[in-house]
Amino acid sequence: MMTDQPAEDAWRKLGGAPGLCVTCVHAKLNETHRGTAYLRCTRAAWDDRLPRYPRLPVRECAGYEAGHEGGQPARP
Ligand code: SF4
Questions:
Q1: Which candidate in 7, 34, 57, 58 could, as Cys together with 71 as Cys, close a disulfide (CB 3.0–4.6 Å)?
Q2: Ligand 1 atom closest to Cα of 63?
């Protein structure tokens, strides 16, 4: 299956390893017009334990839920 190239590019533009967020269903990547990207935690909208814009890389997270590939190519 093909990976989503634009999403993969956006993850690269974060400029650092996102940690857990990369595979979390609550992570949303936003790109700016200037070509940078930032990560927003959508779960933070209703879960007070979490920051809306988590400091990366996230190593531990109470709200983490595995579920998406985050644009990362699948590795064998
Ligand atoms: S719930 Fe945690 S791991 Fe998931 S996107 Fe938010 S900060 Fe990242």
A1: 7
A2: 1
